Amino acid sequence: MIENALVDWSRAQFALTAGYHWIFVPLTLGLAVIMATMETLYVIKKDEFWKQTAKFWMKLFAINFAVGIATGIILEFEFGTNWSNYSWFVGDIFGAPLAIEGMLAFFMEATFFAVMFFGWEKVSKKTHLLATWMTGIGASISAIWILIANSWMQHPVGMEFNPDTVRHEMVDFWALVLNPVAIVKFFHSVFSGWMTGAIFVIGISCWYLLKKRETRFALASIRVAASVGIIGTVVLMLSGDGSGIQAAKYQPMKLAAAEGLEEGGEGAPFSIVPGIEIPNMLSILATHDVNGYVPGINNILEGYTDSEGVTHLSAEEQIARGILALDAFREYRQLKDTNPEAALEARKVLEENIQYFGYGYINSPEELIPPVDLIYWAFRVMVGLGGFLLVLMILVLWAEWKGKLTGMKWLQWVALWAIPLVYLAGQAGWIVAEVGRQPWVIQGLLPTKAAVSSVSVGAVQTTFFLFVAIFTLFLAIEIRIMLKAIKEGPKGV
Description:
The protein is mainly alpha-helical. The chain contains 15 helices and 10 strands.
């Protein structure tokens, strides 16, 4: 029997690594677009100012890129060290997009990065510009394959269970790639990077304005970054709408938890904060129908019929069928060599109940409820800060366009302190996505407690605190190097 402490510490270690990794990834995605846009202006206008501007932000991009790689590599190793049961059970499917990401996207990104960073005086302007854009495109392609893998965990498709190998095996690669959850998640995650990069550039540029330094550089950077950020945030919000639709369809418990919705129904309200609701709004967001049915936590546990007429079994019935599937699987494995006919009957029972296989590990319906309070407030932090940052970028761009920004010190200070807020919004989003899926590591297929490795709790605890120290050191080093580069300014590149 797996200890609960082992599950909790394994989850904590992975969450720690993923959380640190996501500090670096969105800035990489956003800065890539911003610096490439600046270099494009340099090539078009033939103005050395834009070259200097692009090179400065490229320097910060390179610092962030290098540190981000370290945390990303550790994440992939953790699948083998702490989550070996998961890796064995679905490695045939999950490993494919990660392998493609490593062999194609990452090497593409790294190759063009070398040309971009070291090739200013070695290749032509247009070749260098191509390398800069390809570095950013490579980063986005890398994100695509990682998000395809993650989306499969949210909505598993394109596989069949093989009881002989005790593995889920891929049968439809394109179902995996074209997973509707993956498409929405790609736009949502990548364009959140655009917002992060924009707020970072705007904030640093406003610091220069506060110091009355590099005014032209700061204003030009703000103009480009705010434009990129506004576009990215609009797409982010549109994809957020799509995420709500997908959650309602494939992960209703996550949606119910994010809304703190105990009892659902038609015309479900959207909770702004406890006690303040917008009538019918949740139905509109989840179903695009003002009277659409949205199940609450209790409805999901008790069983319900959705707006499309599909009946969803109660939690107790799903658990019962999961136990039946597990028993049939064990019977098949035991009898397949000695009693083929009985084994065949057992396999038939397994196949009839295979969709409930993971529920066989669930001890009670209450285990299917994720931590509601955490998800509820994380969702509001994400949405609230996203809306605030969009308004901020619009206001900053308007002030710069009107020539008023240099005199608006309060707005400059707000923009500077918005930098940690955009990171908080990103982390809150991942809390909703990942914690909201609990108790599942793969939605409806494999619970977290059945996915961990058989290692000692002490070993996981030791590596957890070791990673805390290492990652914090990495972050401190990155911040120190960046602050030094920012203090030197664009003339220091």
